[in-house]
């Protein structure tokens, strides 16, 4: 087992390091939805947010829930940005994305 780390920016505390103790293969197969659930469980459990209400950005790419770390080239030491979705009141709910408090 190896400990992999991803830095998450955009949470209320500024930035946090998420740790994954697993094999390289398991890390590479981690889905974005699993990452969102880990973020909420470890750092946002009292926020009332759910995986659908947050969005993750890697580089300039909005990450899709069912894709994996390997799909996006996310590796040990990568930095991912958290933003909170705000419903636009109509149309595509993904059309309006605001940064989470603390940014």
UniProtKB/TrEMBL annotation:
<dbReference type="InterPro" id="IPR000626">
    <property type="entry name" value="Ubiquitin-like_dom"/>
</dbReference>
<dbReference type="Pfam" id="PF00240">
    <property type="entry name" value="ubiquitin"/>
</dbReference>
<feature type="domain" description="Ubiquitin-like">
    <location>
        <begin position="29"/>
        <end position="89"/>
    </location>
</feature>
<protein>
    <recommendedName>
        <fullName>Ubiquitin-like domain-containing protein</fullName>
    </recommendedName>
</protein>
<dbReference type="InterPro" id="IPR029071">
    <property type="entry name" value="Ubiquitin-like_domsf"/>
</dbReference>
């Amino acid at each position: 087992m190896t400990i992999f780390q991803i830095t998450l920016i955009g949470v209320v505390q500024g930035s946090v390091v998420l740790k994954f103790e697993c094999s390289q293969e398991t890390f590479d197969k981690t889905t974005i939805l699993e990452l969102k659930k880990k973020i909420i469980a470890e750092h946002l459990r009292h926020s009332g947010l759910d995986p659908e209400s947050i969005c993750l950005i890697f580089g300039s790419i909005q990450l899709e829930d069912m894709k994996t770390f390997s799909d996006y080239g996310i590796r040990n030491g990568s930095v991912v940005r958290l933003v909170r979705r705000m419903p636009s009141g109509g149309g595509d709910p993904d059309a309006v994305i605001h940064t989470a408090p603390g940014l």
